[in-house]
């Protein structure tokens, strides 16, 4: 369950970074 949560957290963080990427590049 911990590993599953870790994977979900990692994917969530990755998506957030991808969404925030344009803001950082501008």
Characterization of this structure:
With 26 residues, this protein is an all-alpha fold. The chain has one domain (1-26). 92% of the residues lie in helices and 0% in strands. The protein is rod-shaped, with a radius of gyration of 11 Å. The termini are far apart. The mean pLDDT is 79.
Brief summary:
By secondary structure, the protein is an all-alpha fold. It has one helix at 2-25.
Element layout with pairings:
Elements (H helix, E strand, L loop, with lengths): L1 H24 L1
- Average pLDDT across residues? 79
Report the biggest beta sheet as strand number plus sense, adding barrel if it closes. Answer: none
Which stretches are low in confidence, meaning pLDDT under 50 for 5 or more residues running? none
How many independent structural domains?
A: 1
The count of DSSP E runs of length 2 or more, i.e. the number of strands, is: 0
Strand fraction equals under 5%
Structural class: mainly alpha
How widely separated are the two ends?
38 Å
Question: Which of globular, elongated, flat, extended, rod-shaped describes the shape?
Answer: rod-shaped
Task: Give the helix tally.
Answer: 1
| Topology as a string of helices (H) and strands (E) | H
Cα gyration radius (Å): 11 Å
Helix content: over 70%
